[in-house]
Amino acid sequence: xxxxxxxxxxxxxxxxxxxxxxxxxxxxxxxxxxxxxxxxxxxxxxxxxxxxxxxxxxxxxxxxxxxxxxxxxxxxxxxxxxxxxxxxxxxxxxxxxxxxxxxxxxxxxxxxxxxxxxxxxxxxxxxxxxxxxxxxxxxxxxxxxxxxxxxxxxxxxxxxxxxxxxxxxxxxxxxxxxxxxxxxxxxxxxxxxxxxxxxxxxxxxxxxxxxxxxxxxxxxxxxxxxxxxxxxxxxxxxxxxxxxxxxxxxxxxxxxxxxxxxxxxxxxxxxxxxxxxxxxxxxxxxxxxxxxxxxxxxxxxxxxxxxxxxxxxxxxxxxx
Length: 320
What we know:
8-stranded antiparallel beta barrel; disordered N terminus
């Protein structure tokens, strides 16, 4: 180390004058050795204290290690290094992210995307993956931590029950994945909204790090959330069912008349605890490869070749 070398080569330290100590001992350094040691060891030492009889304030810019500030007073010398602020995100990455999120518009999280739109999305994803600012995501677990909202997936069979026309009065409000990097757990959740209530279906899992980019996921249980009553019954003008549009205006009077009864039933169900169920061992394991990660966007690939694009909860990208 440079600091140790200066102490060794300084002739004043090799042959120090033999004086009787009359006060608390301190480290004796010559003016040259202090200057050289401070200059060469700034990277490794945040604070160097030594004897100096004079009072002096000096500041200098160090292009390699940041700003160096030296303050001397009352015989003490202090050399401190100020950290540089975090560099802003490159404009190219920011533009690619915005273009990717904009391309999701009207695709219903990718389930209804056209082949042309899918090709555009794949191209943008490939470009972002090539500029991944986190080459080893599993070594940056705090960055993975938190709730992520699914914005796009190429896995068209993710929700077969919600294919076009199957459940006309039920829609998916949100699909999310919550990662707890301290306890190595993952929760996948789907929130549904209906005319009278909202509910959710989730799976709880644990994960193990298998490589700098890959984690192994083991699903442990599924949970069907207790329905939560909505404020009022909202009946749409029409619904699509089996490819046909059905007008609901003639039924509004009848449906409104049973709203109080239905609400009472939902309130009774809402008082029950969530229903938990086990997951078959054949479907209990999977792996996930994270190919892009920053503070607000994550791109992952599953073992079936599908891709998932998720946005961190609270990110401005969710409002685009």
